[in-house]
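Good day; I would like, with your permission, to put a structural problem before you. What I wish to show you is a protein chain and, alongside it, a tokenised description of its three-dimensional fold. Here, with my thanks, is the record as I have it:
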Amino acid sequence: MSCSPLHDCRPGRGEGSSFLLLALATALSLPLAALAQSAEEDLDTPYVPTPEAVLKRMLELAEVKPGETVIDLGSGDGRLVITAALKYGAHGFGVELDPLLVERSNESARRAGVADRAKFLQQDLFETDFRAADVLTLYLLPDVNLALRPKILADLKPGARVVSHDFGMREWRPDAMETVQAPDKTVGLRKESTVYLWVVPAKVEGSWELEIGKRKLPLELRQQYQLLSGSVSVPGHGSMPISGGRLRGEALRIALPGGIVGEEPIELVGRVAGDALRGSARREGREIASWSARRRR
């Protein structure tokens, strides 16, 4: 996996490559003109490999499982997808614009005996269909991450994991973030990297009818990525705010105020299944009731 200054890190075709060349020239103490000339002469030279410890932690944090599909955008030398196939029993492909890196990656997969499960394609990452990904990995510039963000949220299934090396997604806060020591990092003075993990959330914003015990109550959910807010309407109490709402894929947690099941607050823990929600109501970690909800048309 790599961040290639002339290819897999550019937003679209050509935009941002000057920015990355400047950043690399500064980090490596090279004249910008010399780096640009080198890049033009040999597209394979100025790509930035992911340090081994970072690559290992990215796959660990994603909790890759046998049979899952791993897709790497900006796959560089192909190590990430090959490692996912060898160590985790996964399969998938990498996308890279540099034809030499694509050729080398496919050859590495053949030598490793995983060519049937790890393939590499020369194509534009913005034109790549990655809907099948259980795990999507990135080492791209921040503006490229942001440009991909709507497609990631629209195309990936709830529960899919997105892992990025060094760059976040701004308003979409990570579900986990770690600093990894990287003594073999080739760019910058900092010999460490940041690894970000997001779990694609189910879509639950809207109006629901909550059924808990013998009560049916209107429930309004507002969603900002994996964070939930909203209100529940309770006879005699009016509209009451919910708090602490959060999604992790299809898993859901919401804190409800007192007055719904007894006078003390409760927590709804459950799962999303299309237009239905269901789970258990808990107080102080103890299950006290079951609940379900249907989306209101």
Q: What stands out?
A: The chain is about 25% helix and 35% strand.
